[in-house]
Amino acid sequence: MNMLAFDTCFGGCSVAAGWNASGTNASGTGGPFASDHAVSRFERLERGHAERLPPMIAAVLEEAPFAVSDLDVIVVTTGPGTFTGQRVGIAAARALSLASGAPVAVLSSLAVMAYTAAAEIGPEIAGKVLAVAVDARRGEIYFQAFAGDGLAPLNAPTLTTPEAAAQILEGRVAISVGSGADMLAKAAQALDRAPVTARLGALEPDVRFIPFSSVVPGAGLPQPLYLRPPDAKPQDGASLKRVS
Amino acid sequence: MPLSALERKQDSRVPDEDSKSGHSGQPLVVLGIETSCDETAAAIVLREADGRGRVLSNVVRSQFDEHRPYGGVVPEIAARAHVECLDAIIKAALAEANVGLADLSGIAATAGPGLNGGLVVGLVTGKTLALAADKPFLAINHLEAHALTVGLTDGIAPPYLMLLVSGGHTQTLLVEGVGRYRRLGTTIDDAIGEAFDKTAKLLGLGYPGGPEVEKAARAGDPSRFPLPRPMLGRAEPHFSLAGLKTALRQRAEAAAPLSDQDIADLCAAFEAAVCDVVSDRVGRAMEMAAGAFTPGQQKWLTIAGGVAANRKIAVALSTLAEARGYRLAVPPPSLCTDNGAMIAWAGAERLALGLVDGLDFAAKPRWPLDPDAPAAIGAGVKA
To answer: Are residues B138 and B167 located together in one domain of the fold?
Structure first.
C-alpha cells in the first residue's frame, strides 16, 4: 500500500509517504507513516502553504521508493481550517488524483491534531476525553472530541462557542489541546464541569501520526469542510427606482 | 542576485533545440490554467516549431450564477467555486484535445494579477500536476497572456500596440517582445469594465454589466443626457472613469423613476462617452509609440479583455486605426475574455525561451507588466 498524506489547514504544513505493504507496521504502534517504511516533513508556517506544499511533496516522493503513478491512496485533511489553506490541500489532492488515478481518503484536520497530540501526551490520555479546540476567532472554536482510548471521534467537527463545546463534553474528564484549549478549559471551569486540562496550545496537525485504520479511500473527490459561510451579503437597494 | 532572477530559473527539462529567437525548435503542447477572477478555465495549445499556434481545446466555466446575487465578484465565493471544478475542467480540456498529461511539454497557470484565493487554487493545481507528471511549470502573468494572444490568433509578432480593457484593467501597452512591455496609459480610478458594471447595477440591469449596458444602449439616444469625457486631449496618456460614472449617476437620479427609454438613453450616452475617451486615449498612446515602429512596418493595434467584446468600442477603434495608419486586430470574444488558451500560449512562448518557474512560485495578486512605468498621479493599485 503506497500512501501519500498532507495537511495545510492551520499553522503547519506536513507531508508523509508510507509504503507498508502489509498494512500494519512492525511495532504495532503509531501510524504507518511512523514506521520504518515512511518519510515525512513538517514545517510550522502561518502562511505560504501554497509555496511550500508542492516542493515538500516533491522532496518526500524523492525519498520514497515509489512514484506518483504507483500511489494507492492519497490522504488529505479537508478542514476545518483557514479557507485558503484548506483549498491548498484539496487542490493538490485533486491534481494528484487526476495524475495518478489513485482515490482520495479524507480526514478532519482536528482528527489529525488528535493523533498528533496523543503521540505527544502518551498513556496519560487513557480513560479521558481528548478535546481538540482551535481558536476560530469571533469568540468561537473549531471543536471535535475523541475517546482517549483508541481516538474514536465522539462528535463531528463543529464551529461553536467554548461554552457549548464544554456542554458537549457532558462532564467527562478531558485534556484539551490546540490554540483554543485554554478557552475550552476556562469555559468548563466556569460551568463548574468536570476538569478540562489545557495542554499543547501550539499544537498543529502532523500527518505522520495518522493511523492506518483511519485511512478509508473515498469514491468521490475531496470537498473542503468550511464550517463558515463566505463573508458576503446579497445586495439590494443599489439600483434606482423604475417606472412601475 | 535580484529576486526576479531567482524566480525565473533555467530548467534541464526544457527542450535543447530551442533558441532565443523563440521561432525555432520543436512543437510544444502546453496546458494552461486560469483562475484569477470568476472564470475557471483550462486549455491545451499547440505551438508549432515555426512559432505558429493552434488551440486544441478551450474549456471555460463562468461563475456568473454564483456572483449574480451580489452584483459583483465575491473573492471567497470565487475561490470556493474554482477548487470544486478545476480538476474536472482540466480533464475535459485534456480529453477534448485528445492528449494525456504525459504528452504535454509544460504546464502553465496564472500566478497573478488577480484574486489571491483563486490564484492559489490554480497555482497549486498546476504545480502539483507538473511535479506529478515531471513537466516544466510556467507561472504566467495574466496581463502578459492577454497581450500575447494576437500571436496565437493572428500570428502578429511584436512590436504592436495593445489596449487591455476589462473589469480589472484599463491600460495601453506597447508590446516589444515576450516579457518586454512598456505601459503607456492606465486608469487613475475605475477600470472601464468596472464602470460598465457599476452603471448596470445603478440602472438595475443584470450582471455582468457590460453586455447588458450595450444591449440597452441599442434603443437609446446618446445625445439626450450630456456626459463629460474625462481626460480628453490631455498630454498624459491615462484614463479616468470616476467623473463619468458620477455624472451618469446624477443624470439618472434626476430622471428617476426611470422608464425603459430613460435607461436606453442613459446607456447610449455612457457608451458614447466611453468610446470618445477610449479613442482619444489610444490615439495619445499611438503618438507615444510612434518611435517603436520602423518606417514602412505594418503597425498593429490589438485589443483584449472583456470590454473588447463591445461592438461600438471596436468600431470607434477601427475608425481611429484607419485614420492613423494602423490595422486593428481583435481576437474572437472567447479569447478576449479570461480563458485558459491564452495562459497556455503565454506558457508555450515562455517555454520556447527556456523561461520556466519553480514549484515554490507564489501568487502575485498585484503584478504589473511594466514595473518600471512611472506611477500615474492619483492612481491606486490598478496602475
So the answer is: no
- Do B211 and B278 share a domain, yes or no? yes
Alpha-carbon Rg of chain B, whole angstroms? 21
How long a stretch of residues is chain A? 244
Cβ–Cβ under 8 Å, residues B238 and A220: no
Taking only the tens place, the pLDDT of each residue in A18-55 is 987 554 444 444 566 766 789 999 999 989 999 999 99
Residue B193, CA atoms < 13 Å, CB-side half-sphere: 23
Residue B177 lies in a domain: yes
Does domain A2-107+205-214 sit in CATH 3.20.20.70? no
Q: Which residues pair with A144 in a beta bridge?
A: A132
A109-199 domain in CATH 3.40.470.10?
A: no
Q: B350 with B138: CB under 8 angstroms?
A: yes
- Do B284 and B187 lie in one domain? The reply is yes
pTM: 0.91
Amino acid letter, residue B360: D
Kindly give the pairing relationship between strand A12-18 and strand A38-44: antiparallel
- Asked if B145 has any chain A CB less than 8 Å from its own CB, the reply is no
Number of domains composing chain B: 2
- Dist CA B379 CA B383 (whole Å): 6
Residue A111 contacts residue A144 (beta carbons within 8 Å): yes
- Pairwise CB contact (< 8 Å): A240 & B203: yes
User: Which of B3, B38, B82, B87 to mutate to probe the A interface, most A CBs <10 Å?
Assistant: B87
Q: How far is A63 from chain B (nearest CA, A)?
A: 14
Domain coverage including residue B228: 160-330
Same structural domain for residues B108 and B192?
no
Cα gap B302→B156, rounded to integer Å: 9
- Kindly indicate whether the ipTM for this predicted assembly is greater than 0.90, answering yes or no: yes
pLDDT digits (tens, 9 = 90+) for B309-363: 899 999 999 999 999 999 999 999 899 999 999 999 999 999 999 999 999 999 9
Residue B275: its H or E element:
helix B260-289
Residue A99 to residue B116, Cβ atoms within 8 A? no
Instruction: Please list, in sequence order, all residues whose beta carbon lies within 8 angstroms of the beta carbon of residue A10, skipping any fewer than 6 positions away.
Output: A81, A82, A85, A109, A134, A204, A205
Inter-chain CB pairs, A–B, below 8 Å? 132
Q: Does residue B374 sit within a domain?
A: no
For residues B270 and B227, is the Cβ–Cβ distance under 8 A? yes
Name every chain B residue with its beta carbon within 8 A of the beta carbon of A58. 131, 359
Instruction: Give a yes or no: residue B341 inside a domain.
Output: yes
Residues of CATH 3.30.420.40 domain(s) within chain A?
2-107+205-214, 109-199
Residues B259 and B340 reside in one and the same domain: no
- Size (chain B), residues: 383
CATH number of the domain encompassing residue B71 = 3.30.420.40
B23: three-class secondary structure by DSSP:
coil
